[in-house]
Design brief:
Mean pLDDT: 79
Helix content: 40-55%
Strand order of the largest sheet: 1-2
Structural class: mainly alpha
Number of strands: 2
Largest sheet: 2 strands, antiparallel
Radius of gyration: 26 Å
Number of domains: 2
Number of helices: 5
């Protein structure tokens, strides 16, 4: 297990490191066994390749994938932030929408609203206009 990871885990309150049956796999153990831990199961769907790569990385760190995910969830709670990166290929619908938006921008068909009340009023007017057009 990486020494920096061990040092960071050792500093975590109520958590200690231990060895599982003499193997070099580390696991997290509650330092306060008198406290009852409530466990919940989270089921997620992910790409098989992503799962296998994440398991390999966790294993190299001496952790299970479950421990790694729990650590990540704990970090989100502590910092109230997360870093996401999306390397997804945009759909054709998204590309078409972006082109349409760019055409509207170039043609000056943009509306700038300075407040929430102004935005709500603008949308209300659009709705009223559509209702009148349907009646008329």
């Amino acid at each position: 297990m990486n020494t920096a990871v061990i040092r960071n885990l050792e500093k975590t309150p109520n958590i200690s490191l231990g060895m599982n049956r003499g193997k070099k796999t580390a696991f997290l153990r509650d330092k306060n066994p008198g406290r009852r831990s409530r466990e919940a199961v989270i089921n997620i769907r992910t790409n098989q390749d992503i799962k296998e790569k994440a398991q390999a990385i966790a294993s190299k760190m001496g952790l299970s994938l479950s421990a790694l995910i729990n650590s990540y969830l704990t970090q989100i709670i502590k910092t109230k932030t997360t870093i996401l990166s999306a390397k997804e290929k945009p759909t054709q619908y998204m590309l078409d929408s972006l082109k349409e938006s760019e055409a509207d921008r170039k043609a000056g068909r943009l509306v700038s609203l300075k407040s929430l009340d102004e935005a709500i009023g603008f949308v209300d007017n659009l709705i009223d206009e559509k209702r009148k057009a349907k009646k008329g």
